[in-house]
């Protein structure tokens, strides 16, 4: 990870040409020249995104064995499998930048790489499965719909593929919520409790306010991001408020009110201390999540060894024939 | 042409792994429907061709997105270099007679 300390005349001409391409709305492809900083930023952002998909399987995997019906269980298994697929789409995109997946997985396991803060919260009830689909996948759709226009071709194409599948996730989650909202008082209470726990962490998913986001300006300039964290967060809130009203749940923010001037829902102060605590490794489940990933990696070793041994054996058989 | 072609995939899959201990990389192409061309979908890591096909199906065709899949060892793909795009494709740009607009037809006649 060496950064050139001096920029040569040649390099600045290349940067100018690169930025002109971005300004013209062109897509940057793996073999195109790109500033080292663009490559580094993409590797960081895409691998965090891929890790989030993989770690995101854990809170929901927690409820597969306890899903209340076969229909719910099938949906949840399919959703968790999709998250694995999404992780692979993005790892594959990240590898086009000249880094390999093996290295990325190591960075996750040894704590060098981050993933979305939301997955460090525990899933305490069945209602959490509904609320995660509704809020967390809903927030992901808002974010990823814009990333589908990102300047880096492989990232944008992975997002297009993911967005098609996220709609299933969000609808299955919202359906669970709507069903509980029509259920017994205990079920409604369970739903409201899940909403209360996940609302603020879901808003934090969009990242710090742009004034405090160290990477935003550069990512916006290079059109990796097309909207600011605050713009995306506001869009998510505007979409979600009427959905909450439709099923009769209350979003836990006394300051939430419609602003007729801006056409936005104004909202209260986000507890950024909590966000930075969770990102810094001190959320409720950070250690548990990484331990579960490490266990999966260790326990999967024999499967990988068996596949490798099988391939070698096949190869020898072919050669002997 | 700045493409590098390493050893053939058969050499790599003698132990199913490439030099850094990882399963080798295969590019995946899917055909969305009969009669459509195969398009690049992404890539997978796999020990051999059969394994690559199975992984590609699980990753890129969970919802009937494909009726056919090709997997190709990533390092046998030879590609044109972006920096050469101008001169490399230039011969195609200066032959106006390859386009229908080059040809005059009598006024009022529908050629197609």
Short descriptors:
heterodimer; A: 321 residues; mainly alpha; two-stranded antiparallel ribbon; 67% helix; globular; B: 112 residues; alpha+beta; Ubiquitin-like (UB roll); three-stranded antiparallel β-sheet; 3 strands; elongated; disordered N terminus
Can you characterise this structure?
The complex is a heterodimer of chains A (321) and B (112). Chain A has 321 residues and is mainly α. Chain A contains 13 helices and two strands, in the order ααααααααααββααα. In chain A, strand 1 and strand 2 form a beta hairpin. Chain B has a domain of 78 residues: Ubiquitin-like (UB roll). The two termini of chain B are 40 Å apart. Chains A and B meet through helix 4, helix 7 and helix 13 of A and strand 2 and helix 2 of B.
* The CATH C-level class name of the domain at 4-81 in chain B: Alpha Beta
In N-to-C order, the SSE pattern of chain B is HEEHEH
Report mean pLDDT of chain A, rounded to a whole number: 93
Q: Count the beta strands of chain A.
A: 2
Percentage of residues in DSSP E strands of chain A: under 5%
- How far apart, in Å, are the first and last alpha carbons of chain B? 40 Å
Mass-distribution shape of chain A: globular
Query: How many H/I helical runs of chain A?
Result: 13
> Which percent range fits the helix content of chain A?
55-70%
Largest sheet of chain A: 2 strands, antiparallel
Runs of chain A in which pLDDT lies below 50 for 5 or more consecutive residues are none
Largest sheet descriptor of chain B: 3 strands, antiparallel
Spatially, the strands of the biggest sheet of chain A line up as: 1-2
| Secondary structure tally: strands of chain B | 3
Oligomer: heterodimer
Anisotropy-based shape of chain B? elongated
Question: Which stretches of chain B are poorly predicted, pLDDT < 50 over at least 5 residues?
Answer: 1-15
**Annotated CATH topology of the domain at 4-81 in chain B:** Ubiquitin-like (UB roll)
Widest β-sheet, arrangement of strands of chain B: 2-1-3
